[in-house]
Design brief:
Blueprint (H helix, E strand, L loop, with lengths): L7 H23 L3 H26 L10 E5 L13 E4 L4 E8 L11 E6 L6 E9 L13 H5 L2 E8 L12 E4 L7
Antiparallel strand pairs: 1-2, 3-6, 4-5, 4-7, 5-6
């Protein structure tokens, strides 16, 4: 074997290994081929799209509220499929609204911005304050024909009052009795 020298198969393998090593060195010197770069970019873009789809799917599994508040009604259970739109009724305990109905005869005694006092059944004679923020322009509970004075008295107008929770005492759904006095009366 020492007289014959290295076998031809070993020479061919060594030559092939040498040529592979040269190709690797050449690729490192020249950088990756454009086709390889394009394929790598496509793989990265596909991975980013998969990530974005997963994030969107995760966002759709959560119910988020636009404000902080107390859940007053929740009509879904875990695992329910729900349509887009509100599924929970929230109440901001510090931002309450009260609607009262004022007879047409007293409508001249109220104005937007006026402070009024009211009591609740839950707190007896303790009084609270609210501010008139809206007076309806059309009457409600209106009979068909308002020709006589007796019939016009039956017409009522919605008046919305803005109030705070008085430190958590007042809650959504409580009943109240409002005392309306003329704006220039104490």
């Amino acid at each position: 074997m020492s007289k014959e020298g290295t076998r031809s198969e070993q020479i061919a393998m060594a030559k092939a290994n040498y040529e592979r090593a040269e190709a690797v060195v050449a690729e490192l010197r020249e950088g990756a081929r454009q086709e390889d770069l394009a394929a790598a970019r496509a793989t990265v873009d596909a991975a980013k799209a998969d990530r974005d789809r997963a994030r969107a799917a995760l966002r759709e599994t959560r119910i988020t509220a636009p404000i902080k508040g107390l859940v007053e009604a929740l009509d879904v259970s875990p695992g329910d499929l729900i349509k887009p739109g509100p599924v929970v009724r929230l109440v901001d305990p510090d931002d309450l609204e009260l609607t009262v109905y004022v007879s047409a005869g007293y409508l001249g005694q109220v104005r937007v911005g006026q402070q009024v006092r009211f009591t609740t059944d839950a707190f007896g004679e303790e009084t609270f304050e609210a501010t008139i923020v809206h007076i309806a322009t059309q009457g409600e509970f209106t009979p068909r024909n308002l020709q006589t004075e007796e019939e016009r008295i039956q017409q009522a107008f919605a008046v919305k009052l803005d109030l705070d929770s008085a430190g958590g005492k007042l809650r959504s759904g409580m009943t109240a009795t409002v005392s309306l006095k003329a704006p220039d009366t104490p």
